[in-house]
Amino acid sequence: VLPPVDRHGLVRAAGDLGFKIGEAGRLHLSLEIDGQWDSNAFYSQGGNPVSAALLDIIPGFDLQVAGNSASLSLKGNLDAKQYLTPETQDLSRLFGSASLGASFNRSGAVGVELSDAFTHSDQTPSLSVAQAVISNHNDLKLSVPVRPGGGALELAVSGQWGRESFEEYVAATGCNPALNPPCVSRTHGDYGYNHY
Description:
Elements: E1 19-21, E2 25-43, E3 49-66, E4 70-83, E5 93-104, E6 112-121, E7 133-146, E8 155-168, E9 193-195
Antiparallel strand pairs: 1-2, 2-3, 3-4, 4-5, 5-6, 6-7, 7-8, 8-9
């Protein structure tokens, strides 16, 4: 099923929602407010869990520009994570993410597709650091689709590069480097990694 096309031959966004940008672009703005209760925000020096009220304020945007031969997608958001109880206010941080996607010569014999996604977060997919850290994760992908025979067959050559690095979030309680080396903040940089 082909997407709808306007009188200029440009692909329209579904429902034509959002703010119109130029002839083929649509900008969507969002705001999310989320309240939570964390029964185990961190452990005190005595080893007891400390609970906390948490407020997330997440403004974001989504820009989509689509044409017959090229398209662009740009998304981003900020996450203002605010702990409301006095014992945990030091955990409040500003996080965020951004992503870019671009496609060129979409209907031609040889195309180019590029995407990049960056996240600054207190969540990490890595198991190499056994404590709370701030993760900076970037994932870059490049693909060159080849469509011989007018598109009846599509072959693609692609590559990917990912990088994750870490920052200290909060000093670890009862840090024992002999048992848990990553609990020492100066070693966080040693646990960054690349993947291809």
